[in-house]
Design a protein that fits this description.
By secondary structure, the protein is mostly beta strands. The protein is built from 2 helices and 5 strands, in the order αβββαββ. It has helices at about 1-5, 60-65; strands at about 25-30, 35-40, 55, 70-75, 80-90.
């Protein structure tokens, strides 16, 4: 474990360009039916989909990483493929400012 920790590079939420989906960012997407969902990309140990926190390792988060508002993504989910359009990317939750 110590060797792994020593080799890690820790990047804060400000490391990625503004407006791009990255670790610790909030992203709002819209599906084909017009339903909007907001998630925060978090580490696997913090994931809690019911609270809008999805793991960076999840298929949805992997498909969204690096995208920006207006981009469309296709995600293979257990129920079949789903297409989303990225509506908004932000550093903070809109509810908390």
């Amino acid at each position: 474990i110590e060797a792994t920790l020593a080799a890690l590079t820790v990047l804060g939420p400000d490391a990625a360009p503004e407006g791009r989906v990255a670790f610790a960012r909030w992203v709002t997407v819209e599906d084909g039916a017009g339903a909007r969902t907001t998630w925060r990309i978090v580490g696997p140990d913090e994931a809690d989909p019911r609270r809008g926190l999805i793991s960076v390792d999840s298929p949805v988060a992997r498909a969204l990483l690096g995208r920006e508002a207006g981009d469309e993504v296709r995600v293979q989910r257990p129920g079949g493929p789903t297409e989303f359009q990225v509506v908004e990317v932000r550093r903070r939750d809109g509810a908390s400012g």
